[in-house]
Amino acid sequence: MKLYNFDLLAYPHVPVDAPRTPVPSSYFDPAKGAANYAEHLEEMAYCEELGFDGVVFNEHHYSAYGTMPSPNLIAAALSQKTKTIKIGVLGNILPLRNHPVRVAEEYAMLDCLSQGRLIAGFVRGIPPEYIWYGVNPSESRGRFQEAYDLIMTAWREPVWSYEGQFFKLHDCAIWPRPLQQPHPPIWIAARSAESIEWCVERRLPCAQVYQTTGQIEDTFGYYRSKAKEAGWEATPDKFILCRHTYIDETDQKARAHVEAAMAYFFTVFNRGFNEAVNKDAVSKELQAAMLSDRSFSYFREGNRERFDFSKMDYDGLLKSGYLIAGSPDTVAQQIQSQMQQVGADHFMGMFHIGNLSHDKVVRSLDLFAKEIMPRLH
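The chain above was modelled as a monomer; its predicted structure follows.
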């Protein structure tokens, strides 16, 4: 099993009674923000010393939920603080990027800067970000797939041209090239039937997080079924499971620390996005633009609707699989159980939850590395 620390790099100083959609940028204290970046980078670099296989982070905009509008900058900084650990960006939001060639160039730079340690991730982003960026959501899937094809062409061909609906380029050659040839490993966050089928066609690994364990079992199961139809077997290395994760000496101590942090996560971070997408009729318009009637038809009965995890109590979060928390024995069992159920080989723990303090996160990482990692590796 491969083990990673997934970091949202959230800003933990927003008052719970602050406006949520959008949160005014006046609530961002630059001095506290600078300290927050430093603490997270310290935690990421520390993961190399602890024996993690990699550190992974993503891209978000207009929110305290994730203060990495350019995750490539964090990747570049981390590449100079570490020597062996994999650096995963999951990922650049291709439909919101001005040009995919820029993504190809920056990822190639990162692969060279890190001496070939980059995991290159691509995502479509979340609906509110299309509103805030003024991008037509009906073009999301087409822009994503075309941008991906263009990036692959740029990485594989010394001189190339591309003719698509959104991008038209002639006689191009990118500099630099990735150190890993023909390109770095690629991860995709995928949930809809259309996205999973697209991944299967290219045999790309699929990552999932904000679903119940049963739902993720359905998602990965659909991937396996489509791979089988295509004549190949999807092995566990094609699947990445991500979970909020916290470890303490006992189940009781873990609950005492992480229950409030999860409540803060849902109140300040998660609700901001949910409120943005649910305003008036925007949610229906976005869903119609970005998804189809069959997008989630593969789910078993009872798993098709999204769960509102923010309304669950602590025990409900544990039961759903959304949260993994407790003593080392408890957490090891929970991870092993979920990974076996969904059939994944890559586990990403979101160790920095909500407004957990830096010292608590480091202690959780220490316990994970000392008590749990030997059982999973």
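The domain at 2-376 is CATH 3.20.20.30 (TIM Barrel).
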